[in-house]
Amino acid sequence: MTKAKTAPKAAPKAAAKTAVKAAKAAPAVKSVDASGDELVFTRPEAMVDRATHYCPGCHHGIAHRLVAELLDEMELTDKTIAASSIGCSVFLYNYIKADTVESPHGRAPAVATGIKRARPDKFVFTYQGDGDLASIGMAEIMHAANRGERITVVFVNNTVYGMTGGQMAPTTLIGQRTTTCPGGRCKDREGAPIRMAEIIAQLGGVAFCARGSLDSVKNIRQAKKYMRKAFEAQTTGQGFGFIELLAGCPTNWRMTPVAANKRITDEMIPYFPLGVYKDLEADGTCGSMIAPGAAGGEAGGK
Amino acid sequence: MSRITVSEERCKGCLLCTLVCPVTIIRQSERINQHGYKVAEVPADDMAKCTGCASCATICPDVAIEVWRGKKAKKAA
């Protein structure tokens, strides 16, 4: 009886494997038009084909696309549950083809913890801005990271509260003018901007923590590599994955998109150095061991 | 021949693509789309210079650009 039972079970498994192989092979076949030109860049499958509500030049669109590309490439779309935040990225569920739970302000890591513990087989990520994660949600992110929850956090840092009209955020740079610090942020009065990637890297449960930027093609490609590792920290069960992305907010910085893009390069990157801050897989080094912005951004340990 | 197609419905005229194009063939057109943005374009004469590097599409926040890469460009690379 036992043998008879196992035999039919094995057959569907084999069939399923073949189906998975076929599915993997399918995306490799790229579109080719009549003249033999190859379609090398198009909208990822996991991203909904609709216009975003973001302002012109807002880097949220790039961050969304990187998430969607990785969900496609890692074949996670069907088993993903996202926890979106409050802020401009509140409408994440309109753009990513994954089930999304809308979290209270700053509480996305707590919501994601619940989802992951109830459904450990699912891929769970949160997508949060700096007003959400670094201010009201500071407690949740710190403790979720310290517990080593198997979730991934995509943190978009644009140094301002975008949705509510450009108020000062914990990450607002010294001297930056916002509606709540019209004279510019003052270090004596409001303190120095918080560097989240450095803080998160110090916590015990974190498997991967890095900071990327979305201001240039090179940095975007590097940021995607970091994001992949942050996703893999969860899929391989190593622990908490954290990726900070420096982004622009032309509207609330009162700048053109081109000037805002330049501000990331000139002002943000010097204060928020790019690089890997913790990578358990590489060598387990953490924080000060790694030279920020080192070539390739990999954990140095020199 | 390598080329790009800009979706004029999606383009918001932020012009980030003009910053990263290695052959600087992308420019702002005089056409205004239904949202009121002046869209980006590549003049027909310049399209032959396109290398199909996909830099513009990588930085486009609205995924408005599709990139086609020609066989010749691939061989040369």
Q: Could you explain the architecture of this structure?
A:
The complex is a heterodimer of chains A (302) and B (77). Chain A has 302 residues and is of the alpha/beta class. Chain A has a single domain, classed as Thiamin diphosphate (ThDP)-binding fold, Pyr/PP domains (Rossmann fold, 3-Layer(aba) Sandwich), CATH 3.40.50.970. Helix content of chain A is 37%, strand content 15%. Chain A has a 7-stranded mixed beta sheet with strand order 3-2-4-5-7-6-8, sandwiched between helices. In chain A, strand 6, helix 8 and strand 7 form a beta-alpha-beta unit. The longest helix of chain A is centred in the N-terminal third of the chain and has 27 residues. Chain A is globular, with a radius of gyration of 21 Å. The N terminus and C terminus of chain A are likely disordered. Chain B has 77 residues and is α+β, with helices and mostly antiparallel strands. Chain B has a single domain, classed as 2-Layer Sandwich (Alpha-Beta Plaits). In chain B, the strands form 2 sheets. A two-stranded antiparallel sheet of chain B has the order 1-4. Chain B is globular and about 35 Å long. Chain B starts with a strand and ends with a helix. The interface between A and B is medium-sized, with 31 and 33 residues. Strand 1 of chain A pairs antiparallel with strand 4 of chain B, so a sheet runs across the interface.
Low-confidence stretches of chain B: none
Biggest sheet layout of chain B: 2 strands, antiparallel
Mind telling me the C-alpha Rg of chain B?
12 Å
Give helix % range of chain B: 10-25%
Total domains of chain B: 1
Count of runs of 4 or more consecutive helical residues of chain B: 3
CATH topology category name of chain B = Alpha-Beta Plaits
Q: Over the alpha carbons, how many angstroms does the gyration radius of chain A reach?
A: 21 Å
Could you say what the CATH architecture of chain A is? 3-Layer(aba) Sandwich
Structural category of chain A: alpha/beta
Helix content of chain A: 25-40%
Count of DSSP H/I helices of chain A:
9
Helix/strand order of chain B, N-terminal first: EHEEHEH
Strand order of the largest sheet of chain A: 3-2-4-5-7-6-8
CATH class assignment of chain B: Alpha Beta
Alpha carbon gap, first and last residue of chain A: 61 Å
Query: What's the multimeric state?
Result: heterodimer
